[in-house]
Amino acid sequence: MSAAAPPEGASEATAAAAERRWAFIVAGIIALLLAMMVFTGLHWAAMPPSRVETIDVNTVHLEGEFVESNLGTALGPDGKVTVRLIAQQYSFSPQCIVVPAEMPVTFRGTATDAIHGFIVGKTNANTMLIPGFVATFTTRFSKTGEQLMPCHEYCGTGHEAMWARVQVLPPAEFLEKARDGERLTCVSR
Predict the structure, then answer these.
(1) CB neighbours of 46 closer than 8 A, spacing ≥ 6?
(2) Most exposed: 44, 90, 93, 182, by fewest CB within 10 Å?
(3) Which helix H or strand E contains 137, and what residues bound it?
(4) Alpha-carbon dihedral of residues 180, 146, 189, 85, nearest 10 degrees?
């Protein structure tokens, strides 16, 4: 018994049908991705993220929460730790930030002249600072010690020298230093 040979051209027809099916599947995936991009683009344009805070870059140093005497780390009456900072070409103010380990720390920052950003060492503390807007995020530092905080958004020819330091202290030591209610920084004023 010998098997009957398939009719001439049957294998080519089977291959062509399989390629057509895959072409339709790929086209469907591409159409779905394009539809998702259009939908999300229109949705976010019509409904921007909530809690967008703006600030006047012309008066940021003169009034409001980002005046020089309010920059640095503060322990609020409710026990919350807040760091306020400003980025400007080619420095951060303050240059050195003191934070506690294993406590929530809220960063609030803005830029005065160009888009800047920072990342703190090997942590998840990472944000962009855009002139006219206040960036806010909360994080925890698990290890004590000093970490570098470089600018990670190209901001001009001095960009490579734009960095600050973050000193992470044990909670008890931080609370002892923050007891006076003054803004903490590890740079002498």
Answers:
(1) none
(2) 44
(3) strand 133-139
(4) -80
Q: Give residues with Cβ within 8 angstroms of 187, minimum separation 6.
A: 94, 95, 96
Q: Averaged over 70-95, what is the pLDDT?
A: 92
- Global pTM value: 0.72
Nearest C-alpha neighbor of 16 from the set 4, 28, 24, 6:
24
What is d(CA 168, CA 147) in angstroms, rounded to the nearest whole number? 8
Q: Which of the four pLDDT bands, split at 50, 70 and 90, describes residue 19?
A: very high
Closest CA to 81 of 183, 189, 187: 183
**Backbone φ and ψ of 52, nearest 5°:** -85, 115
Tokens found for residue 84: 């306020």
